[in-house]
């Protein structure tokens, strides 16, 4: 009968196990537990929430529940006490439970054991949970690290917690808070995602290869100025508002300064009515022209069209649609392009006409047509 895997074989298998399976297996095998913390730990997505942590698609949720306790210390009688009535009061107490979720579906629920006959405080349980998951791990590799937290808060991580990551999503918090958690090899970041950022001139922001900004709808004018003056070559701004008024603000700014920026702005129309409202709003407010793409690659997609707004002698504002997973939704993208070109960073088959029923006045000569 074979003796099983060698030490090196065990390390190799552990390294490439899915993170949650690895935690489950190594916690039940003393021999694997001894070598587990020294083997690189790979996670696709690691997300921290207030009472949640999600490792890949598996979530650990800490919550408090109440139970009645007739043996509460408040019911104990000592010398001099007088019990009035034949029944004692029923007191309630809170205790922590951990729910385990797979793709947001609860698969198990465990009450946290008491320590020395005492219920553990919630913050102590969170600290202990993080220590079990990440404590003493010397090499943690995370593709996307996300924080969905609000100030003020305390992130109760184990001592020495440090990760290597390519993509950081700091949510509403200043990304500088998390520099101490990142290994130096993580910089410059491949992608940084922010939500309504107050500052954009930080080194961690300017050095990232790609910058994504959410909740642009809540930007005050001063932050709008900061965004427009941001010297970054790859910026995507996602507007999640119900109306595209922030598109209008950007267009007005670009037209007033007769110059665009490297930022790409996105807004999702959730139906045909919203898409029509957007197109009508743009064409009524600005000198917009509906154009048909004349690149020969569009032969299989002849009905594609987009909106063009002249900016200056060398550039124009291009607004075009991109198909979404939901058939009735359209992602509207706006960016500045050079005159005579139309080069969206999307596969041509994913593009979608902004005006489905639009028919050009003339048949376009694909060899000689000019795009504004």
UniProtKB/TrEMBL annotation:
| A Pfam family that the UniProt record links to this protein | DUF3557
Among InterPro entries, the record links this protein to: DUF3557
Quote the protein name from its UniProt record.
Answer: Uncharacterized protein
Organism this protein belongs to: Caenorhabditis remanei
């Amino acid at each position: 009968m074979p003796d099983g895997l060698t030490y090196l074989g065990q390390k190799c298998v552990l390294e490439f196990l899915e993170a949650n399976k690895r935690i489950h297996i190594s916690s039940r095998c003393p021999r694997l537990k001894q070598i587990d913390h020294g083997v690189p730990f790979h996670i696709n997505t690691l997300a921290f929430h207030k009472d949640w942590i999600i490792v890949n698609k598996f979530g650990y949720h800490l919550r408090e529940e109440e139970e009645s306790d007739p043996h509460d210390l408040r019911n104990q009688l000592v010398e001099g006490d007088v019990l009035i009535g034949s029944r004692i009061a029923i007191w309630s107490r809170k205790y922590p439970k951990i729910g385990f979720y797979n793709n947001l579906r609860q698969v198990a629920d465990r009450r946290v054991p008491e320590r020395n006959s005492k219920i553990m405080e919630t913050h102590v349980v969170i600290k202990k949970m993080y220590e079990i998951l990440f404590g003493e791990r010397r090499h943690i590799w995370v593709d996307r690290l996300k924080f969905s937290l609000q100030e003020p808060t305390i992130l109760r991580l184990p001592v020495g917690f440090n990760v290597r990551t390519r993509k950081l999503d700091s949510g509403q918090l200043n990304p500088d808070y998390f520099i101490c958690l990142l290994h130096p090899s993580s910089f410059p970041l491949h992608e940084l995602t922010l939500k309504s950022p107050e500052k954009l001139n930080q080194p961690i922001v300017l050095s990232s290869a790609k910058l994504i900004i959410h909740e642009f709808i809540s930007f005050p004018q001063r932050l709008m100025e900061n965004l427009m003056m941001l010297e970054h070559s790859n910026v995507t701004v996602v507007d999640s508002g119900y109306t595209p008024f922030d598109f209008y603000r950007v267009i007005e700014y670009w037209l007033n300064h007769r110059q665009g920026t490297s930022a790409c702005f996105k807004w999702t129309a959730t139906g045909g009515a919203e898409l029509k409202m957007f197109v009508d709003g743009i064409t009524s407010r600005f000198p917009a022209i509906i154009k048909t793409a004349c690149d020969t690659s569009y032969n299989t997609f002849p009905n594609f069209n987009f909106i063009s707004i002249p900016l200056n002698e060398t550039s124009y504002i291009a607004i075009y649609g991109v198909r979404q997973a939901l058939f009735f939704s359209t992602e509207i993208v706006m960016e500045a392009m050079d005159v005579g070109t139309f080069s969206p960073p999307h596969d041509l088959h994913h593009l979608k006409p902004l005006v489905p029923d639009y028919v050009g006045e003339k048949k376009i000569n694909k060899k000689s047509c000019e795009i504004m």
